[in-house]
Amino acid sequence: MKTVNFLTYYFVPENTAATNRVVAMVKELEKKYKVNVICATEKGKAQRNSKVKFTDNVDIYYVDQRMYNGEKFYTRALHELWYAGKIALKSNRVKSDVKITTAPSMFLIPMVTMFVRGKKIIDIRDLVWDYMSASSMFSKVLKFNISSLMKQSLKTFDFVSVTNDHEVEWVKSNVGKNDVAKITNGIEEQNFLELSALSAVQNEKFTITYVGNVGIAQNIETLINAAKNLKDIQVNIVGEGNRYKYLKAYAKKNQISNVEFFGKVPRDKMIDFYNSSSLLFAQLDEKFKAAMPSKLYEYASTGLPIIYAGLGEARNFVDKLENCTAINPNDSKLLEVAISKYMDKDIQVSQKNREFIQKNFIRETQSLKLVDLVDTLVK
Hints:
Helix content: 40-55%
Radius of gyration: 21 Å
CATH superfamily of the largest domain: Glycogen Phosphorylase B
Strand content: 15-25%
Structural class: alpha/beta
Number of strands: 14
Number of domains: 2
CATH class of the largest domain: Alpha Beta
Largest sheet: 8 strands, mixed
Shape: globular
Order of helices and strands: EHEEEHEHEHEHEHEHEHEHEHEHEHHH
Number of helices: 14
């Protein structure tokens, strides 16, 4: 049996959208190949064993990652660069026929280019370097140099896969590779089946739920400010991120009592939040218009009403759905108006949205495309 090394920053027990994508891919790959996952641990949580059995056909090789402040860009970047190098070097010590690297952790791309030899596939989940600020001369120069490094590094991979049409065009234009595979993000089939079985619940209080990363890109302060003026609603924020503590303190300081923070919640408990929701909210800053939040696939699977504040790829996706409203990001007044329109209606569940997700965005089906790329390289 041929062997695949899968290099990623995120894997279980980490619970992130990036982890979910990788786990789905690994589960499809292990049906034909022996898979070694080489990844970082959760910050500050060392693994007693450097090799852990995940399934009969999948082993995990962990690189211990110490705790650091992820809110500071340069601190985070230096640490990610360091651990990306360690992941790449560890992969060299684990024999394989094909190496797959996945990024939103962009520093894995040049590290794998420098240190890993053999047949290689890169799976790009986000064009992270494209989102970097260019507000000063220093940041402009930094962004240019990092982007140039990424473009050159990507040329060394045998295959490139991306998640959406914008990324396909970026790779074709900047890397010169015309054979780009599109493996969309999505939702696991079992998770879809659970969410698509929900029925609308008319809550005593109109409840808005946000699920996902609580970071700079999402700017959930917009939703909190809207809640401050809409006293009759309840807002549930589920997830953590580098703005979580700040926003929790912000809500307390401003005496916004109708916003509740739940932090990270196990997946099997998430169904309770969706079950009690009247409306689902997501947002991305306009700088991230090439990105597609994975939670939108989950949201659409429920059939519940959605408000999306953002532009670009995610907005194009939302425009294909019914029972949804798209607005410009970071505008709490505009958000208040959008929410108010839903408060006057009975909650409707969209079967059309569920069918759209089932047809196009089941992760297991999408992951088969990666298996096809590996098949091509091992022939």
